[in-house]
Prior knowledge:
The structure is a single chain. This protein is mainly alpha-helical. The chain has one domain (2-495). The chain contains 21 helices and two strands. A two-stranded antiparallel ribbon has the order 1-2. α10 (244-265) crosses α11 (271-286). The protein starts with a helix and ends in a 5-residue tail after the last helix.
Amino acid sequence: MEVLHNLVLGFGTAFKPLYLAYALLGAVFGTITGILPGLGPIGAMSILLSFTLYLDATGAMILFAGIYYGAMYGGASTSILLNIPGEAASVVTCIDGYQMGKKGRAGAALTVAAVGSFIAGTISVIGLTLAAPTLSGFALRFGPPEFLAIGVSGLVILVRLSGGSSVKSIIMVLVGLALATVGIDPIGGMERFTFGVYELSQGIDLVPVAMGLFGIAEVLYAARHSEERLKPIDIRMRELLPTLSEWRRSTAPIFRGSTLGFIIGLIPGPSHVISTFVSYFVEKKLSKHPEEFGKGAIEGVAGPEAANNAAVGGAYVPLLALGLPFTPALAVVLGALLLHGVTPGPNLIKQKPELFWALIASMYIGNMMLLVLNLPLVKIFVSILKVPRKLLLPLIAVVCLVGVYSIGSSYMDLVVLAVLGIAGYALRGIGYEPAPLVLALVLGPLIETSLRQSLKITRGDIGPIIFRPICISVYCTVLIFFAAPYVLRLFKGRRRPITA
């Protein structure tokens, strides 16, 4: 009953005209972000991070939440109509969504994707509503060793799940941890790695790093590629209604994808991307007609689209309950909270209940807004891709520069922005993913402080830090996570029959 009471209070706040405007703005901007290839929610949030200083903390969180799940919606449109994944999580949707479009069923695919996303978003918000307060209460038992275990395990799992080369991911994590040590020692209070530059004594801020790696780098990358004329598949309003058979085939995948997405969202790493692949393979495995996958199976659209939206709600749980961002986008959300003097974690719900419950309520409202907006206006949103890059890219670059300088009026922030923008462009060219660097930069201070505090508490004894009940549970879970695939592979190898 207490949850329902708090949720009612949250809706009372979220229904204020100003917050409704933020939710609508976030939903629209997020949809546009999802449609524009490469930018994604991380780039959009990074660009707008400095401008949230002109909002209150609740408004900033509502705006960013709208951008996050709006981008999940928007990526489906270009995947189905153009075979272009506007957002990384929409790659899987291209496989069957575009094939449905070529068969004249693009409208049905868009409707199923939108309805599936709405249902998944609603289910994940319900899960967030129930899980975050419970986990927050449990987290009050956490001390430095427990936060150290979660921070280290988060980075380790991130390396495993980030995709591509694990060695490259480890290098990015180490670079991020190194950058996190620049500035004032949090325990001793002395300067370190500043090389005599006074501006570096404040440390390297997340805002210019995120804007450089995901904003400026994307501008440089997009500027290098020649423009192509895009011809989206044409659809009419009457074609948006799926057949009864398509609805029937989509229902179970939507609910399965919602459940999978929320659970995977609790895991560190690009959960919204991983969840789509897991959902797609699950649906293909369970389907009575697996031969249709890749040729326009409606299940291949419904499941993954539900999964990537549900993963958003799941990813918010560790951020709000523990103060730990497990995805790069939520690292930027954490940055916005810190800019407003709000520290997420176990005490957030008690200290800032109006912010937490208004955010939850706005997610319900925002999902409804997206459902109403996306289908009727899909042609308008897709037409944004026709805006010439020579107009769009300079505008994004200027917004990044103004945004970074407006926070601290520091030339060093502009230097960091430029250096990491060029570095991000170069890293992308040689196959390095910058997301682990951003998460390591955010989690680095927590890991360092927790480790040093733990060693002071135990007087240098490592045993109590590792073998406390919660710590050993976390480390064992990570060990099982890594060992399970090899054990299963070995088990299957032994069971394989020997042929003569």
